[in-house]
Amino acid sequence: MKRNILITMGILILVGFAVQGIFGAVAGIFVASIIGVVYGAVKRDKLLVKWSSIALVITILCVILFYVGLINSDM
Fold first, then answer.
1. Which of 2, 8, 23, 42 is exposed most, by the fewest CB atoms within 10 A?
2. What is the rounded distance in angstroms from the CA atom of residue 16 to the CA atom of residue 21?
3. Which stretches are transmembrane (predicted)?
């Protein structure tokens, strides 16, 4: 079952990238990491929760940095 959830997470990231480019990949990673945290919490898989949480935090930080950079740009 764990293999199926990892395949689903990978498909989400690839579909996001194919549909919207780099922004879709970021959204796909965000959604996949949330799914990983929820699935890991339900199945009590500490390793999956740990890595999904790390991916979630990194994604949120990157989105915040992108918006801060966008606000401070001279465009």
1. 42
2. 7
3. 12-39, 51-70
